[in-house]
Design brief:
- The protein is an all-alpha fold.
- The protein folds into two domains: 17-224 and 264-298, no CATH class; 299-349.
- The chain has helices spanning 13-28, 39-59, 67-88, 94-97, 100-114, 117-122, 126-154, 159-162, 165-185, 200-203, 208-223, 232-240, 266-325, 329-349.
- Mean pLDDT is 85; it is low at 1-11 and 326-334.
- Residues 336-350 have a biased composition (Basic and acidic residues).
- Keywords: Membrane, Transmembrane, Transmembrane helix.
- Residues 301-318 have a biased composition (Polar residues).
Length: 350
């Protein structure tokens, strides 16, 4: 599929088109014609298994997780958010119509864990693996935030809901981040489930898994011009940074046209949001490494300063002592004159 006429005068189209081609290849092709699972669905399901088992092994309770428990947790993590939004909007969840989503995120993570594939992946270098998983998450979660989030609200038969910017952003947040709220709330990554403690995302504030869904829902609704409300942000940004008009060429009727004036096509906006979310998740992955490197650099500099400071102080003290012990040229000249005078007096006496 080719993209034309973007908000950047088409300059972004070739890049987004190549990204879309790679993603569509994985999302539309299957490892075998008889397989009900696409390549991307398999990759994402294995990634979910690694996330679940990685937490369980780090906590030391992986051996206590049963088969049905390992089957259920990924389903809640992936399908929990969209199930909630479907109930809120009076729609039927997709997994009630087709068993493919249940098989994808129930069976594949279980098979990957029991076959040893998860153990192999978790033994690989952590940073490259986590960056790859963050990219996979970025492209998979956007489906819930856009197609099953904002687009679902826009297609709702109720005009009050269909024209509500609040509903668009809220549904995108729940659909994209609801699973990340439910699983920690019920301690489902643990061997013993329960709701006996305040979830971390409530106690410490939501992380990028949750607020990232809000940001992506807002950005997507802005790019497709889902409601005139979403025109306020581009107008505000370009008012503060007028030089931004050199890169962002908004249509002339963008602010006054009552009809939608999309800045990007739906497909292009989804790819843009996928890349944006992937960058956000990769930044979260890289941040601890960057912080640790900064601390190591600072500590090494402090050690060097501590080594240099005593040596320089000792050298300066020795130099001062040497200067104090060594007579100056003027004092030595005075002492020589006194000796000469004393010698002359002794000769005269004799």
């Amino acid at each position: 599929m080719s993209f034309t006429g973007s908000v950047w005068d088409g300059s972004s189209s070739p890049v987004l088109s190549r990204v879309y081609s790679a993603y569509s290849f994985l999302n539309n092709n299957k490892p075998h014609p008889a397989s009900p699972f696409t390549l991307f669905a398999i990759i994402h399901a294995i990634r979910i298994a690694c996330a679940f088992r990685g937490v369980a092994r780090a906590g030391g309770w992986d051996h206590r997780i049963g088969l049905f428990q390992a089957f259920t947790v990924p389903l809640v993590l992936i399908l929990g958010g969209t199930t909630i939004t479907s109930i809120l909007m009076g729609a039927v969840p997709g997994w009630l119509i087709s068993p493919i989503p249940v098989a994808t995120y129930g069976l594949i993570p279980l098979i990957a864990s029991e076959s040893g594939l998860v153990s192999f992946l978790l033994s690989t270098p952590r940073l490259p693996r986590d960056l790859l998983f963050s990219t996979v998450d970025g492209f998979s979660r956007v489906v819930g935030m856009t197609t099953l989030g904002v687009d679902t609200v826009l297609a709702h038969p109720n005009p009050a809901l269909r024209n509500s910017p609040w509903a668009m952003v809220l549904v995108a947040t729940i659909a994209g981040g609801g699973g990340g709220m439910l699983v920690p709330a019920m301690k489902m990554f643990h061997a013993d489930w329960g709701f006996d403690a305040t979830p971390a995302w409530v106690r410490d504030g939501p992380g990028v898994d949750i607020w990232g869904a809000t940001v992506i829902g807002y950005v997507y609704a802005t790019l497709i011009d889902a409601h005139p409300f979403f025109r306020l942000l581009p107008k505000y940004v370009l008012t503060i940074f007028p030089f931004g008009s050199n890169w962002f060429h908004l249509p002339k009727s963008y602010y006054v046209n009552p009809s939608p004036v999309p800045l990007l096509s739906n497909h292009e906006a989804k790819i843009f949001c996928s890349v944006l979310l992937s960058l956000m998740l990769c930044t979260r992955t890289l941040w601890p490494y960057l912080q640790s490197n900064r601390k190591l650099t600072a500590s090494s500099l402090n050690k060097k300063n501590k080594k240099v400071t005593p040596t320089s102080a000792l050298t300066s003290s020795k130099a001062m002592a040497a200067v104090a012990d060594k007579p100056s040229s003027s004092s030595s000249a005075v002492s020589a004159d006194e000796k000469n005078k004393q010698g002359l007096k002794e000769r005269k006496t004799k």
